[in-house]
């Protein structure tokens, strides 16, 4: 295997126990070079602990962590080829922007002339020109974050760790910063590992996402695959919204399964992964066809009758919440593509939902 | 926990040198007191070598009438000065916390002065004051303790004010507004909302005032009238004549009483704390 | 501490202060007792000695206020100038020792696990519950010639001698008999006593600032390649500066004015400013001179506080610039 093909990070059977609680439970993961890798999960799922282990701030109870092929077990944080952007940014309040950025070079004995050059480049890279002599309390949250980024990147680490980097920013700034981070990652060609609980953030930025829950990794996949082919019900419901239907598997047919569901009848659907042999049927709200007339079923389509409970209007799209005939709750989303549209149907209106088997997926529980 | 998991980069308290340092400092702080207590039971007048257990010096200290009187006086002084300092300090803190008035900043700064100026300056100032204003010296007990109590209150209540104000700084004023919005009067709001919030500050402040009073030597030394016996001054004259086991015994009793009072105060605070946790 | 006071003062302003005119009765009930007490039993006494410092002694108890500067000038007598510098020197050394001793303690306490923290904090505060006189007295037993330190040293000496005996080196290296160190009744004893008595004053403000220190700043420093020692001096010390300054002031000012510790532990050559002031008011009965000396001490105190206030405002101005 060529050097550049080997993963930059290898996490092998790592467990971290705090007393009886296992914050990270037997996690194995390989992160490819130059990836923009996201660790995604609800709070308390162990993603930050895992990130801090890479930084050297926590020790694993068992297992190994290799960075660029080197075992990190006995290596202190200050000797690791890794830098971190902290959730609070941790910009040193008693130093100017330039001093903050120079700090990591100064303490490792980089020659003074080189420090000056690299700091200037770093300031330009994060677009903080003209702010070199400012102090952190004169900066906005977004600017402080840029300082934290420049300070880490100026060290040219093999790995940049970002702990919930956008959580303290307001929504608009968050969008800008997302683009900025992706641009930076392309520019410097360093592997970024970002921890986030925000699925949109992960989907929008990452080249690959690992979804974590209760200390375990459920699925690792690129964004599109994660959304369209979630292997587990938790993943499907954590990333985006989905409608779930209980079902029974009648037969496995290669990549598909013949299933029967009380609401949908008998269908052939795709299995999310080879190991999925039972579980739940899911379909994304935008893939549900909604009709207010009493249409004939299109070929292969399953029909559900229901009544509208509520419609939430978001501008670009509306989400319709319904109750099916058997009492289960469903949702379906509709883009408001035209400015002039018929008024929304009132709650209580009966309607028909069409589900195409191609859009249904059998996922594990 | 010891040494089971590898040392985290910020687990300074688990580093051996820091532990040794901590242990050494605590030995430095406690060894003299422990030695003093232990040797109050030593059956020897001069020797520092253990000669056998005795309570003889406690009996002697107890038979020393002036020592007993001094002891009672000191506890009384601490008691009265704690109550007065707590009330005055808490009121001042509330006033500064709540009101805007001309001279507010000046009063705020002035009230912090007794905390920072050297004790001896305050001591000699009070000595001159009581002498010059013609404060009657031959007052019957317990009125002869008044100058000492006045002095103790003067340096204790600013501390109480600081502690109570620090507590009030965390008070959300919309709680008061909510109370009034729900129909409570000004007084009911103060009593049912503000005071309960202030309580931990009051307890901490009064504990501090008591500690300061029991710890004080200098102010007591300068404000004691000629015939007034107080514990530190009494011990001081005994020490000047030479260290004797009686001094050890009497000191041990004072340490025991102080610790006991503090434990009671902390205990008394605890049900309140648990109630707060439940609420 | 002043910075904290300032900080909550700002917070108080945000708390929408009421005008005192809204409820004058409540306002006076709150503010009057403290103000009167402060005025009557603090400022009036201080005013009295301020005036006395300009007085002349005309009889054993008779002092005329002649607005003379003689008492202040007397303070500049070489004897007293030497005394003053000794006081400053002793207080400085004691403060530095307390800082060096206290900083690791504060660090250990603030980084201790939550369960242990209150216990360690209590251990730091506990000595305060013993009267300062008793604590100072306790030092005597430890330091005197036939005290515990010498006792321990003698034990080590005997051990050393016994160890060297087989080599025939015992007499040469260790001497014929143990010479106890004279630890008591000198400046060292006074410094030792000051550190002993005021160490908690150093630890508590240090602890308070270190406790508030954002842990991720230290992690960031380590992450950027700095070692622990580098992190200590580049990050912890600068950020703990307010606490360090508070601790220095809280130890230095009382140390400068101490009279009990130097009285009991010091020798004839270690009289400090406090002792001489006390003497003027008790034995020597020269109140005007004692008052002038007290005010010199007060002016020094004010100068230190003003210096700190200036440092803080300069820092804030620089932060705003």
Task: Provide an overview of this structure.
The complex is a heterotrimer of chains A (365), B (279) and C (321). Chain A has 8 helices and 21 strands. By secondary structure, chain A is an alpha+beta fold. Chain A has 2 domains: 2-228, P-loop containing nucleotide triphosphate hydrolases (Rossmann fold), CATH 3.40.50.300; 241-365, Nucleic acid-binding proteins (OB fold (Dihydrolipoamide Acetyltransferase, E2P)), CATH 2.40.50. Chain B has 2 domains: 12-56, no CATH class; 65-278, MetI-like fold (Orthogonal Bundle), CATH 1.10.3720.10. Chain B has 279 residues and is mainly alpha-helical. Chain B has 11 helices and 1 strand, in the order αααβαααααααα. Chain C has 2 domains: 20-46, no CATH class; 78-145 and 182-320, MetI-like (MetI-like fold, Orthogonal Bundle), CATH 1.10.3720.10. In chain C, strands 2-3 form a two-stranded antiparallel ribbon. In chain C, a hairpin with a 5-residue loop joins strand 2 and strand 3 (63-65). The model of chain C has no long low-confidence stretch (mean pLDDT 85). The interface between B and C is large, with 90 and 95 residues.
| CATH superfamily grouping of the largest domain in chain A | P-loop containing nucleotide triphosphate hydrolases
> CATH topology of the largest domain in chain A, anyone?
Rossmann fold
Mean pLDDT of chain A: 90
Number of helices of chain C: 15
The whole-number mean of residue pLDDT values of chain C reads 85
**What is the share of helical residues of chain A?**
10-25%
Which word captures the global form of chain C?
globular
What is the first-to-last residue Cα distance of chain C? 24 Å
Q: Structural class of the secondary elements of chain C?
A: mainly alpha
What would you say about this model in short?
Chain A is α+β, with helices and mostly antiparallel strands and 365 residues long.
């Amino acid at each position: 295997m060529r050097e550049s093909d080997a993963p930059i990070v290898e996490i092998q059977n790592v467990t971290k126990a705090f007393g009886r609680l296992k914050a990270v439970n037997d996690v194995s993961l390989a992160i490819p070079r130059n990836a923009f890798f996201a660790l995604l999960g609800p709070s308390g799922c162990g993603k930050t602990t895992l990130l801090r282990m890479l930084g050297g701030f926590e020790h694993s109870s068992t297992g190994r962590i290799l960075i660029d092929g080197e075992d990190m077990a006995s290596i202190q944080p200050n000797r690791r080829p890794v830098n971190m952007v902290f959730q609070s940014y941790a910009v040193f309040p008693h130093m100017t922007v330039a001093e903050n950025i120079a700090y990591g070079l100064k303490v490792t004995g980089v020659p003074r002339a080189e420090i000056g050059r690299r700091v200037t480049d770093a300031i330009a890279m994060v677009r903080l020109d003209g702010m070199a002599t400012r102090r952190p309390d004169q900066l906005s949250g977004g600017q402080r974050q840029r300082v934290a980024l420049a300070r880490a990147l100026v060290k040219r680490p093999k790995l940049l760790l970002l702990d919930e980097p956008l959580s303290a920013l307001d929504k608009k700034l968050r969008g800008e910063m997302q683009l900025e981070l992706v641009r930076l990652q392309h520019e410097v060609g360093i592997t970024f590992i970002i921890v986030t609980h925000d699925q949109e953030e992960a989907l929008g930025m990452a080249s690959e996402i690992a979804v974590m829950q209760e200390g375990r990794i459920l699925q690792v996949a690129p964004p599109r695959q994660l959304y369209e082919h979630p292997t587990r019900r938790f993943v499907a419901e954590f990333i985006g919204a989905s409608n779930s239907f209980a079902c029974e598997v009648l037969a496995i047919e290669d990549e598909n399964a013949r299933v029967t569901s009380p609401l949908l009848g008998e269908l052939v659907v795709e299995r999310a992964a080879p190991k999925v042999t039972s579980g739940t049927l899911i379909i994304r709200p935008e893939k549900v066809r909604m009709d207010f007339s009493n249409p004939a079923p299109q070929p292969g389509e399953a029909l559900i009758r229901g009544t509208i409970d509520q419609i939430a209007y978001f501008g670009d799209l509306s989400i319709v919440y319904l109750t099916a005939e058997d009492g289960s709750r469903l949702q379906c989303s509709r883009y408001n593509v035209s400015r002039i549209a018929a008024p929304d149907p009132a709650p209580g209106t009966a309607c028909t939902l069409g589900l195409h088997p191609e859009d249904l997926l059998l996922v594990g529980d | 926990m010891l040494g089971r998991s590898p040392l985290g980069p910020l687990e300074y308290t688990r580093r051996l040198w820091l532990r040794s340092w901590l242990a050494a400092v605590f030995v430095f702080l406690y060894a003299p007191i422990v030695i003093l207590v232990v040797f109050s039971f030593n059956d020897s007048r001069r020797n520092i070598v253990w000669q056998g257990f005795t309570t003889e010096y406690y009996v002697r200290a107890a038979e020393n009438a002036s020592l007993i009187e001094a002891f009672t006086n000191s506890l009384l002084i601490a008691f009265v000065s704690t109550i007065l300092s707590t009330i005055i300090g808490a009121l001042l803190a509330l006033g500064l916390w709540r009101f805007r008035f001309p001279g507010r900043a000046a009063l705020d700064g002035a009230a912090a002065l007794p905390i920072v100026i050297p004790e001896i300056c305050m001591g000699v100032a009070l000595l001159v004051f009581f002498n010059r204003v013609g404060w009657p010296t031959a007052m019957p007990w317990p009125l002869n303790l008044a100058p000492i109590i006045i002095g103790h209150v003067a340096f204790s209540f600013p501390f109480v004010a600081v502690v109570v104000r620090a507590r009030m700084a965390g008070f959300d004023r919309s709680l008061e507004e909510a109370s009034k919005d729900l129909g409570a009067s000004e007084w009911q709001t103060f009593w049912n909302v503000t005071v309960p919030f202030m309580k931990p500050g009051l307890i901490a402040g009064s504990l501090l005032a008591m500690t300061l009073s029991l710890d004080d030597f200098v102010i007591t030394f300068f404000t004691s009238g000629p015939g007034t016996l107080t514990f530190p001054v009494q011990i001081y004259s005994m020490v000047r004549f030479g260290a004797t086991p009686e001094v050890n015994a009497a000191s041990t009793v004072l340490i025991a009483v102080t610790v006991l009072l503090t434990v009671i105060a902390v205990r008394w605070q605890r049900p309140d704390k648990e109630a707060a946790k439940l609420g | 501490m002043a910075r904290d006071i300032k900080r909550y003062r700002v917070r108080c302003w945000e708390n929408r202060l009421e005008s005192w005119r809204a409820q004058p009765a409540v306002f006076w009930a709150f503010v009057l007792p403290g103000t009167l007490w402060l005025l009557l039993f603090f400022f009036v006494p201080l005013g009295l000695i301020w005036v006395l410092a300009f007085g002349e002694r005309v009889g054993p108890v008779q002092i005329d206020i002649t607005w003379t500067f003689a008492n202040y000038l007397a303070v500049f007598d070489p004897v007293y100038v030497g005394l003053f510098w000794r006081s400053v020197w002793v207080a400085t050394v004691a403060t530095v020792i307390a800082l060096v001793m206290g900083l690791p303690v504060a660090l250990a306490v603030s980084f201790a696990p939550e369960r242990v923290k209150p216990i360690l904090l209590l251990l730091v505060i506990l000595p305060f519950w013993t009267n300062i006189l008793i604590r100072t007295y306790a030092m005597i037993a430890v330091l005197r010639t036939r005290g515990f330190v010498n006792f321990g040293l003698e034990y080590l000496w005997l051990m050393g001698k016994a160890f060297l005996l087989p080599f025939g080196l015992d007499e040469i290296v260790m001497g014929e008999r143990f010479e106890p160190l004279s630890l008591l009744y000198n400046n060292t004893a006074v410094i030792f006593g000051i550190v002993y008595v005021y160490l908690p004053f150093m630890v508590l403000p240090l602890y308070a600032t270190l406790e508030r220190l954002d842990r991720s700043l230290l992690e960031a420093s380590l992450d950027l390649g700095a070692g622990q020692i580098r992190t200590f001096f580049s990050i912890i010390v600068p950020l703990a500066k307010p606490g360090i300054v508070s601790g220095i002031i809280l130890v230095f000012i009382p140390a400068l004015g101490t009279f009990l510790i130097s009285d009991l532990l010091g020798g004839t050559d270690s009289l400090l400013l406090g002792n001489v002031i006390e003497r003027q008011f008790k034995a020597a009965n020269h109140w005007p001179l004692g008052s002038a000396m007290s005010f010199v001490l007060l002016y020094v105190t004010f100068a230190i506080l003003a210096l700190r206030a200036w440092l803080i405002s300069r820092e804030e101005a620089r932060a705003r610039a």
